[in-house]
Amino acid sequence: MFDTMIRDIVERRDSGLNTISDGEAGIAYRDLPRRFEELDRQFAGGGAEDWFAFPCGNSLAEAVLLLWLLWRKRSFLLMPRGGGLEIPSFCRCVVTVNIEAGAVELRGNANVSAAPAWLKREPALLLKTSGSTAAPKMALHHHRRLAVNVRNCVARFGVAASDRLLIPVPLYHMYGLGAGFLPAVCAGASVSLMEGTNIIRLLDREKTFKPTAAMLTPTLIAMMLRGRKGDYPYRLAVTAGDRIGEDEMARFEERFGVLFNLYGSTELGAIATTNPCDPTAVRYRAAVRPLADVEIQIDPYIRCRHGSGFECYVDMAGNRLEGTDDGWFATGDLGNAESEGRFRVLGRAGNSQNRNGILVAFAEVESLMEKWIDGIDHAVVVAAAGETERGKRMTAFCQLQKRSALTAAEIRGRAFDVLPRHQVPDEVRVLAEIPRLPNGKFDRKALERLVNYK
Questions:
Q1: pTM of the predicted model, to two decimals?
Q2: Cis peptide leading into 116, omega within 30 of 0?
């Protein structure tokens, strides 16, 4: 469990002096117990089985509080810092950090009610997820199983105490937490946290922190390739979220080092990654290998049996909702099985449609257009209103590489040469920049509005 994990790091000679920092302040691992004792006094009087809601950002004080909650085996909901967030009725209080003062503040939940008995059986973490319905629900992770997934990430990424990991992605997301922060702590590596990252702040932090590894969104990778003049020797970088194109991945590795493409989810944590030992052609097309304790079925929908994934969904009143079917979780993604246990993720099942009686995954079309049509930096395909003789209409939005002067008509003409007929978009539009969501993923809803509403 995390108490043993942190105690081991504090006492190890190769990691005790390493630090967790946020650019403003830092703390050595060996000094964590003293800070934890202060938090013990602040939380005195609360029951060990009480649930907390914890709105969390990427400050040092919030990271230390997060570790204390895991150290003391407390159950809590981890959520983004910000106002207007609904607090579940079973959370006794909300714990926040005054960023300017670095002080922990507690306030009671006005709508509190007793937590169901089953929620008190063992320490757990809740992460909010929109799921497939509009009703809010949360994924419940027991500490003991999350710790296993964390150790599997350490093994896959080869994280060591000598590493210096830059984390400019949110701790309240499973990507930043379970694949980045906690594996770094487990290994005793130094950590530098960032939020509100842009290319200037990223370059400044590189100068002061000198990272050897980084967690990067596709947006940050695009920023580095476009807006950075010099190279930087990362030992490894990890990206998750939207697909990274083959050309983009090749350009990144040429300038910045090995890039792991991570496939995971709020429910299951880290599921699979690309492997540096694989041939570059395999890695560049994002063929991933499952982590230890993970089994995959593809038909063509991806189902996963994860030995250290979540327990179930929970609603805002603490009721247990559906989880997995006989241990198998339907990810909602489409995939292709490959040799030697690898597989490719083709995208969300919702980002696909039938044409000529064949299921077309938009991500597959996007990947082929980016690979075979010179001059395209990014392609994003969305469903459009109306029908053609091949089925529902598709529109491709393209962002061009620098110095490319391709027109929409030229792109569609070349698509007929490199794509099967049923995959050729009915319309192509060229944008100066494809809109993205705050998490770095392409904003497909915004593109659908552009094409479907006058």
A1: 0.84
A2: no
